[in-house]
Specification:
Layout: E1 5-8, H1 16-25, E2 32-36, H2 41-47, E3 52-56, H3 74-83, E4 85-86, E5 92-93, H4 94-99, E6 105-106, H5 117-136, E7 142-146, H6 160-168, E8 172-175
Parallel strand pairs: 1-2, 2-3, 3-6, 7-8
Antiparallel strand pairs: 4-5
Helix pairs in contact: 1-2, 3-5, 5-6
Length: 187
């Protein structure tokens, strides 16, 4: 299994199946594919059945995070995020959209930056609620979804309860890694 993971943004996927097949035939199938708004299950079944899939829905209403993230009540924010209707998507909730995309894991957020204890505690409470909602509907989550270098190491203990519950609900920790402007010889 390749350590390579692939991120597909919305748009054309011409040649994606051939890419998956080429990797699988070379003995190094892609380990994980992360998609935004794309159902790739048919390609995975046909070309790379061992590849795992993380799905995220993003529209104008379901953008990266709920409006006012890190403000107010995290439980209320989480419930509204999961149960709100996206007018751009045939009036479906996030959960209803996920049901149309049979991924291995679902990512409800994108690139949150909990850089101080109060934000990490807020994210922890939000994530605990999200894990319970997802599990009640039969979904496993990719939690965290933080960009490279965040959160600072000192913030992780505030997220331990979410990590522990995530483990019980077969969630995975989703950390983004970018290599732009990094000297790979020293990485």
């Amino acid at each position: 299994m390749s350590k390579l993971s692939v991120h597909l943004s919305p748009g054309r996927t011409d040649g994606f199946g051939a890419f998956l097949q080429k990797c699988a035939e070379a003995g190094s199938p892609i380990g994980v594919v992360y998609t935004v708004n794309q159902n790739i299950k048919p390609d995975l079944i046909k070309y790379s059945p061992s590849t795992k899939w993380i799905y995220r829905r993003q529209t104008d209403e379901f953008n990266r995070t709920p409006n006012g993230f890190f403000e107010g009540d995290p439980i209320d924010s989480c419930r509204r995020w999961f149960l709100a209707f996206d007018r751009a998507d045939h009036n479906r909730t996030l959960l209803q959209n996920w049901a149309l995309n049979p991924a291995d894991w679902f990512d409800p957020l994108n690139e949150v930056v909990p850089d101080i204890p109060s934000k990490m505690q807020w994210l922890n409470a939000w994530t605990l609620c999200a894990l319970e909602i997802a599990a009640a509907h039969g979904f496993k989550l990719a939690i965290g979804s933080t960009p490279t270098g965040t959160p600072p190491a000192a913030m992780w203990p505030y997220f331990y309860p979410a990590l522990q519950l995530g483990q019980r609900h077969s969630a995975i920790l989703n950390l983004h890694a970018y290599w732009e402007q990094i000297d790979r010889d020293n990485a």
